[in-house]
Design brief:
The structure is a homotetramer. Chain A contains eleven helices and eleven strands. Chain A is α+β, with helices and mostly antiparallel strands. In chain A, a hairpin with a 4-residue loop joins strand 2 and strand 3.
Amino acid sequence: MLELTALNEMNEAAFVGALGGVYEKSPWIAERAFRNKGEIVSITALAEAMKREVDAASEAEQLDLITSHPDLAGKAALAGELTAESTDEQARAGLGSLTPEEMERFTRLNGKYREKFGFPFILAVRNASKHIILGAFETRLHNSRNAELAAALAQVHKIAWMRIRLLVRHSPRGKLTCHVLDTARGTPAAHMRVTLRRLDQTSGAWEELLATHTNADGRLDGPALAGADMRDGEYEFTFGVGEYFSIAGVPTAGTPFLREVPLRFGIDNPEAHYHVPLLCSPWSYSTYRGS
Amino acid sequence: MLELTALNEMNEAAFVGALGGVYEKSPWIAERAFRNKGEIVSITALAEAMKREVDAASEAEQLDLITSHPDLAGKAALAGELTAESTDEQARAGLGSLTPEEMERFTRLNGKYREKFGFPFILAVRNASKHIILGAFETRLHNSRNAELAAALAQVHKIAWMRIRLLVRHSPRGKLTCHVLDTARGTPAAHMRVTLRRLDQTSGAWEELLATHTNADGRLDGPALAGADMRDGEYEFTFGVGEYFSIAGVPTAGTPFLREVPLRFGIDNPEAHYHVPLLCSPWSYSTYRGS
Amino acid sequence: MLELTALNEMNEAAFVGALGGVYEKSPWIAERAFRNKGEIVSITALAEAMKREVDAASEAEQLDLITSHPDLAGKAALAGELTAESTDEQARAGLGSLTPEEMERFTRLNGKYREKFGFPFILAVRNASKHIILGAFETRLHNSRNAELAAALAQVHKIAWMRIRLLVRHSPRGKLTCHVLDTARGTPAAHMRVTLRRLDQTSGAWEELLATHTNADGRLDGPALAGADMRDGEYEFTFGVGEYFSIAGVPTAGTPFLREVPLRFGIDNPEAHYHVPLLCSPWSYSTYRGS
Amino acid sequence: MLELTALNEMNEAAFVGALGGVYEKSPWIAERAFRNKGEIVSITALAEAMKREVDAASEAEQLDLITSHPDLAGKAALAGELTAESTDEQARAGLGSLTPEEMERFTRLNGKYREKFGFPFILAVRNASKHIILGAFETRLHNSRNAELAAALAQVHKIAWMRIRLLVRHSPRGKLTCHVLDTARGTPAAHMRVTLRRLDQTSGAWEELLATHTNADGRLDGPALAGADMRDGEYEFTFGVGEYFSIAGVPTAGTPFLREVPLRFGIDNPEAHYHVPLLCSPWSYSTYRGS
């Protein structure tokens, strides 16, 4: 995995060698980004720098970029002629093991889409599934060509971001924090049990990272994750809400409506601040991406 | 398990024989309830009928009822002299296997509580844990005697309710429903994948009960549970929120903030209507006990 | 105001005479809609029928439609050469009384936008303000041409919808309902005081339409608005939340955090069902557009 | 109005002279609080110090305190024999101008309550209304004596707190802050228009205190209120939600569901930190008392 420091020391050839595949078959984007770049302090900044070159490019160049993408489960995929990145992405979405019926459906949809819009259907499939891809295909076939050009570019940037995340080690500026509010009594929820787990993508198991309690202000003492521990992926906070209200003497049912409350969420950008609060009464709760 | 029809046909002796233990060592409550009862159409109505007798009793009788309860992990428990119901309840809360330090702590707290208030500490422990019991002990020791008398009676009713649930089969009038709203677009969330699972209390495994999709109005076609399937216990809905927004073309992150959203909740009264909605955007969600 | 029944009896000439101006200077849309139409049962259906013709038109026709729109506060406006509809809309947004500085800013932004995209900036300004228009101008100047073509068409449809609302009387199928949930206790909020008021657009005064209480299920007996009373505009529910919790004996502060809770919301489509619930504890509340 | 510094310099006689009426006809509470007090740094600390003496008093003393309170709209009130504090409080709740029917209802409820419980019905009526008082009367008549003793003491402390607030100037440690989150896009809501108004209790008019915009983090630059400006009373934030989403290009309706969103809330303790956030999409919002 590339370090940001190494990236900053590269000459143009090395830089384009490293990042030329971030945008599918379009090394010109890495080239232009190299020429305009200052010091790259984060993968967030790197992604923005490359995106800026795409957004500043001509409409013809943008269309070229779009048409450089392969069909999903298309001829190139069958013939083993995809780029390494696309091969990996399509495999992860399960496109390597389609039934004949599914294959036929993909072929038909790819054809219909290209016929209507003149360019391939693009979807960032790394975290997708056959179901999502087929569903999105049907939805987007109803769009106007302008709307689809805009949607295709948005997907292209999303693919690029996920490729960058795999190639370059992120800076340690991100963190995950939490806050629990008791909306039945209008106070911070003090001394509530909290655990944090991460989904191991390989084994499918949930690994415990933290088992603690909120402090008097309803917060954790320090971030739940920070620095190198802050990685993209799927996480779950679990909160001992039933226990908290039982101890506090707030009336709850024999079998409480809320006992263990799980909040499952994804971290997309490990360099960002994710604030994931829980607002709860014995009978309701909510959460949101805070900052 | 007793059927409501059987209960309605009983004479007083049989009725008191069946329900005399619902309130600890206080068969007079079942006796009075028998005399005042009409047809009992539900366990909810049965619990209310018995509760009414307690609430209408004199203060001395209520205090007698309270003092009929054993200490938690107290002498009677050690000597094996608890009622069958109390034995079961205390065992389920793990009070049968205390360390010497925990045992000493219980003895000390029981003593302190009795000294301050003149009656035993009462907590419905069937779904509790040592941690909850000790926490509640500390909280409630700070209360006034009046507040504790009120709290003790509330716990006594909760214990009675959970005993009734074990003794008498509930009527099939309850149901569980669900509704999903898309708060990013102000519409019902149509065609979202939903599964429902129940925690098997014996094995600790989650058993799948339902795997379906919301309809065009964001609802399930018919209740998720009804009639005999509606049982008290712990449940979890899981919603394919990430998939839903991906298919709809609403922008989400490469690793979406919300992918699978679990709502874990308890059903206390299988005769009630539990409406458990999900309000969600790609970045926030909330739920509550609705009706 | 046109009745739907009258509209359904019209021949093509009359129909186009009535609705030719719904899409700016583009009577061909009304013409095509007439040919493809069945019975028009609602203004919602009418708007959809006309929108379908635009969406099915060629890209060249769509671009023509877009370029038929005048600049906001542009030369045509100054010269009094706008269509009646545009004149009214621009006046309502305050574009008839710009300061010289504002006028210069509009002229500069109109020029910049046309230069970048080749068509005029379109925004449905009927309910907008100078501040919104100038803010949206700055935001949208950063978009790609494809994104702007899609945005322009969306605005064109929004303008058409608001013109239809003024021209044709809506069918009486819409309604407004309400539901109040007590999230502190997990029950419907029964017997809570509710009032509903509508903003009189002419006088700026809030006119009371309803003063009532929720029933035992936390709902109103019947819809708050229905049929002809259901009109587009701005409304406000006010809920006696503080009073409700005081009477219920739920602890609140001397000066309660929530006393009168106002929910102010707009009805855009008087033929739709607006469900506007309140979920509240003494310390929190939320609302959403339900169905 | 008394300053905390002046209070700290008082001898016992002066202290009891100043605060003897905080608890109705019970100067012994001020006396004991004086003996046990350290430096009083806030009215919050003062209220807690006095409350501690009540909670530590014997049950007989607590019952004396309760029975020292007059009936609401009772004989003492009619005869003009209330303490100055009670006179003011009962007048503010409209108890000085009852109809004969209302007077009869109060007399009947006072009698029924005293008969059942043996002490007067106590409610902190300063911010209440006839409707609240009569409603609470009916609710509380169903309680047990123990529950009512606990409820009466809670009301006694609430009355004391509101009397302290009128007598002693609060310390300037409190503040009001705000945060706006865009739950449609998962970001802080930057540059949203916010105004803050306070209800003038005398004139009934809403006085504008602040008109500003959120910063890039969705917060205000500095607290909305702090120090001496932080006073108990009723406040309203108004947020330009419709404008915000229109400028951002997020699709909204012609008549947006949310345009101006008001959050009306009370500040009970001017020495506390009130955090009042808004979480909003174009179709939903929520708020809560944060910290």
